[in-house]
Amino acid sequence: MVACVALRVSLGATDSSYLVTVAPYMLVSAGVPVAVLFGTLRHRTPHRAGWFLLAVAQVLYAVADGMTVRDDWLGDFLEPTPADLVYFGSYLLLSAAVLVFIRRRTPGWDIPSGIDALVVSISAGLLTWIYVLQPLTSDSELPLNAKLTQSAYPVLDLMMLILAIRLVMGTGTRGPVLWLLLGSLTVMFGVDTAYAVEGIADGGSVEAAYLDALWMMSLGLLGAAALHPGVRRFAQRSDTALPDASPGRLGVLAVAVLMAPGVQFIQWLRGEPISVPLVSAACAVMFLLVLARMYGLVTAQRRAAVTDSLTGLHTRRYFTHALAVECRRATRSGHGVGLLIIDVDHFKKVNDGYGHPAGDQVLREVARRLAAGSRAGGVTARYGGEEFVVLAPHTGPDELYALAERLREEMAGLPVDIGGELLSVTVSIGAAAAVHPDPESLLHDADEALYAAKAAGRNRAILSGPVSLG
């Protein structure tokens, strides 16, 4: 890339033909999709969908570059050209690739970070339109379709840059790959804006060596990102559930929201025309987006308060409240309530022999099987450590014992994968059922039954009360 940039700039200062001077640029443009595909295959990237989309996007980009070179060489074209349509298609695929990276690295962040990015993009787009594109488009003699076409590129680049910022704002792995991608999209935004400004101001197409050099740098950074060994870890899934309201994040949103009224005030001070409908619409949209973001933060905090971060089940606090509510409801209506307390057998040996990450994987798998095997309308929660509870409303002793046995068999019937090694995991279950139940008594009876199951040799379910089964 560096060699081709130097060659392109050098040839631009000579009397060489157009096709000769543009050849280094086309070499980089055509080489980037090859580099992306080669890097993806060579480093055996575990999650390849995003990189394959990126390669296809760059193929389209190279094709569009070739079409543009042909149009410039012939010197007779009217925007938008077929090449512009192909460029727009490459932007769509590139956006899809970045979204795949975002969803893989930080699952569950799509709506929150999307709202943040949209607030910032509306603010930045407003600034770009008022201070760059609108003055130029109003003075330029270009036809309207050409103005819109040239203005579309910085807008699309801005959207891409916002997606890249979403990558940075996520909690996935940092490193050269991330910064190379961000650098590529940042340079592309800058050079496309410069191209649009010059093209609209001059009233025609722009042929400048420095623009080609910057485009080549952007493409080269993208290819370097795919060739870097860090692509193997780039799409690793993050365990962070949702983005929090950090001071930095709130500061960025505050500046973005205040930008629209600030621009209006500056225009008034300068005596410039104020686009009241545009600024008012931007303020209204950003206000609604901030409200949506606040609602999402409150909902996330409420969910986090009742959700165990490791297993995704309900917390002990939530279960205690649900048990009390269900017992009061059962006392009024006279229906039965069942309770299971499940303990993972010899869990300490798992941690000591295989490490805490393996223990965490066992707990997650046990939680998954409990949630999948429990009855609809019940509550499954992590009670503490390696203990879980299942609250089963409208359940009698026989049904409860059948549920306990089914869950126990599902645990013992299939080993747990702990990083390539299969580990046999069993559970002991204490069950208690009652009509007109008392929460403390129900918990006590189930706990006594669990103690009996452990004393009897583990990997079994025992029902408390006069109908104890072993």
Taking pLDDT < 50 over at least 5 consecutive residues as the criterion, the unreliable ranges are 466-470
Strand tally is 7
Strand order of the largest sheet: 2-3-1-6-7
Class by alpha and beta content: alpha+beta
Biggest sheet record: 5 strands, mixed
Describe what this molecule looks like in 3D.
With 470 residues, the protein is an alpha+beta fold. Helix 1 runs antiparallel to helix 8. The protein starts with a helix and ends in a 7-residue tail after the last strand. The strands form two sheets. It has a five-stranded mixed beta sheet with strand order 2-3-1-6-7, sandwiched between helices. Strands 4-5 form a two-stranded antiparallel ribbon. The radius of gyration is 31 Å and the shape is elongated. A hairpin with a 4-residue loop joins strand 4 and strand 5. The protein has 16 helices and seven strands. It holds the Pfam family GGDEF. It comes from Actinoplanes flavus.
List keywords for this structure.
470 residues; two-stranded antiparallel sheet; disordered C terminus; 69% helix; 16 helices
Give a quick summary of the entry:
Helices cover 69% and strands 8% of the residues. The strands form two sheets. It has a five-stranded mixed beta sheet with strand order 2-3-1-6-7, sandwiched between helices. A two-stranded antiparallel sheet has the order 4-5.
